[in-house]
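Sample intake sheet
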Amino acid sequence: MRSRLLAAAAFFMLAGGAAHADMSGGVVKIGVLNDMSGLYADLSGQGSVVAAQMAVEAFGGSVGGAKIEIIGADHQNKADIGSNIARQWFDVNGVDVIVDVPTSSVALAVSDVAREKNKVLLVSGAAASDLTGPKCSPNTVHWTYDTWALANGTGKSVVQTGGDTWFFITADYAFGQALERDTTAVIKANGGKVLGAVRHPLNTADFSSFLLQAQSSGAKVIGLANAGGDTTNAIKQAAEFGIVQGGQSLAGLLVFITDVHALGLQTAQGLVLTEAFYWDANEATRKFSEEFAKRDRGIHPTMVHAGVYSAVLHYLKAVKALGSDTDGAAVVAKMKGMPTDDPLFGKGMIRVDGRHIHPMYLFEVKKPEESKGEWDYYKLRATIPADEAFRPLNQGGCPLVKG
């Protein structure tokens, strides 16, 4: 009897150890990599760490007996810094999955590192549609939005309502170039014309020369193919030049609620924009956003923050189902094999190219008199169904797509 009890005890000890033996280092480690101090800090930054922590708490704090840890770092919007941090995290710090990564040039570089190291990258902040096109990877999932979705949401709406001649002011890196490219395709497909474009350095302070070129082009629409502080600076300086009063309109192709908050409704009113998430959409989004704001200086969550929460939650579900986090490609394959479902995005799925599929929403910024209070900024113009919101699978050029 004693020997049987000892054997049983030994079995349960081994079984208990096995519960997290397939978690690398006995822990599931999540690395939040983004802009913590620059022009994307409010729309991403520390808020993405908060969102990841909230997802871990919602999941229960552990996976199969293994604890879940979160670390964060600032990639400073530089691809070399981002890829070096990723290598350090994967090789030395035991990070299993990197999340967020705004700035498309950084995301593309980190995607290569994740594939090389067979880890996982969950992109929420970057926009370049190449992440699920020619640069797609079996180790990367693109969660929240992309340049194709933005172009076909905002760009198509503006052209169809009379804005048929455009001039672009474009951030001169992978994201801006992809957004200009994808929006140009939509404009031409809907009978419009692009009269010209000018590119500006990332995080520039002075848009005067770029705005003067756009103004003199005579285009009905000035398309801002930039984001964060670049977008808000361009809009503020456009107001100083009297561009809208002169008859031209601005199309912010990637605008976040934190940008509208920074601009104020008096300046931002009437802007049409495409988002994947709005804090005031329903009771579930309001509940999440109230808790998020308590933890992040009163800031209401952007779609980037919502995407981090949703992606981390689904990743943890896949790791639990697989019983291991050691093989990144296998974890992503499991994520693709499971339908997605969470309070912020609802039901969805991940395609073979790594594109998370869900509805997108076309919003218009309210006039000051329409707002009921702080952060009450959007009115819904249209819901873009999930099966129309993103580029068709056979048009992206992803090598993972057969046929």
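Comment: The chain is about 45% helix and 20% strand. The first helix runs from residue 2 to 18.
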